[in-house]
Design brief:
- The chain contains 9 helices and 13 strands.
- The protein has 269 residues and is α/β, with parallel strands linked by helices.
- It folds into 2 domains: 233 residues, Spore Coat Polysaccharide Biosynthesis Protein SpsA, Chain A (Alpha-Beta Complex); 34 residues.
- The strands form 3 sheets. Strands 1, 4, 5, 6, 8, 9, 10, 11 and 12 form a 9-stranded mixed sheet that branches.
- Helix 8 runs antiparallel to helix 9.
Length: 269
């Protein structure tokens, strides 16, 4: 199978159902995925990167402001180009329920992506170029971690645990909210989804709780480092400011003025 054919067989699922209350007032009237960052909405940055990588089978799971999201996708990409799935539980459930709603499009090869992760295209490329394994999480490393980071522990390049509660002396990186399922990973994940959704606490769980379970019980969850590449998670107003600076830097780098921009940012901080 050629490179282009392989990429066109990959499905991408973007989890964009939430409002993003921690980003208020920016999300008072529209969802987090429609926040404008440097002239594009967050979901547009993600879809453009996916399409640039050859991935055109894209599904967005939506909830809060669903009509607004569908209009943006229709106007920007054309009717029916980006599929949507409505999650009616977005007000009372976390993203495990969004995954469950999209389980029927989780085929043999798919990318699962948090709807609040802004990233430069090489991040996606590095994940796609990783060895074909059941489940591969894109991870980054930094000098220190806080309670809100989705931390990971590693045994070699295999993930042994992924959770916000990992003890700091056992942390080897953090998940950036992007993962690739291949080589049997999809059925593993779907089966665990079905089992989890039968429990009352499921609506309050993140889907990474399932990844953590699979990591500890199957040994089929691996890490792909994207260290040195740019990404940003949008949770709080300060994150939005950082994201705006990041995309401005990307634009300057593209125009050959990134060094001067970085010096200006350093002086103004």
């Amino acid at each position: 199978m050629g490179f282009f054919e392989q990429r066109t067989r990959t499905t991408a699922i973007i989890l964009s159902a939430g409002q993003g209350r921690r980003l208020l007032p920016y999300t008072a009237n529209s969802p987090k995925c429609l926040i404008d960052v440097g002239g594009l909405r967050v979901i547009e940055w993600q879809i453009d990167a996916l399409m640039a990588a050859g991935i055109t089978r894209i599904t967005a799971v939506i909830g809060y402001g669903a009509d607004q999201v569908e209009k943006v996708l229709h106007d920007r990409y054309g009717p029916g180009v980006i599929s949507t799935i409505y999650n009616p539980f977005f007000e009372v459930a976390d993203n495990l329920a969004s995954c469950w709603m999209a389980r029927h499009v989780m085929h043999d090869d798919f990318i699962l992506l948090n709807g609040d992760t802004l990233f430069e295209p090489p991040v996606l490329e590095r994940l796609l170029d990783a060895p074909a394994r059941a489940i591969t999480l894109a991870i980054d490393k930094k000098p220190a971690y806080d309670s809100d980071d989705m931390k990971v522990s590693l045994v070699g390049d295999r993930i042994s645990a992924v959770s916000k509660q990992i003890a700091l002396d056992s942390v080897d990186g953090e998940s950036i909210g992007m993962m690739h399922f291949q080589a049997g990973g999809g059925p593993l994940f779907r089966s665990a989804l079905e089992d989890s959704m039968r429990r009352p606490e499921a609506l309050q769980n993140w889907y990474l709780s399932i990844i953590n379970h699979l990591a500890s019980t199957t040994g089929q969850v691996f890490a792909q480092s994207i260290e040195g590449l740019d990404w940003n998670e949008l949770d709080f107003p300060a994150d939005l400011k950082a994201a705006q600076a990041l995309v401005k830097f990307w634009a300057c780098r593209k125009n050959g003025t990134a060094i001067a921009f970085a010096e200006d940012e350093k002086e103004s901080s």
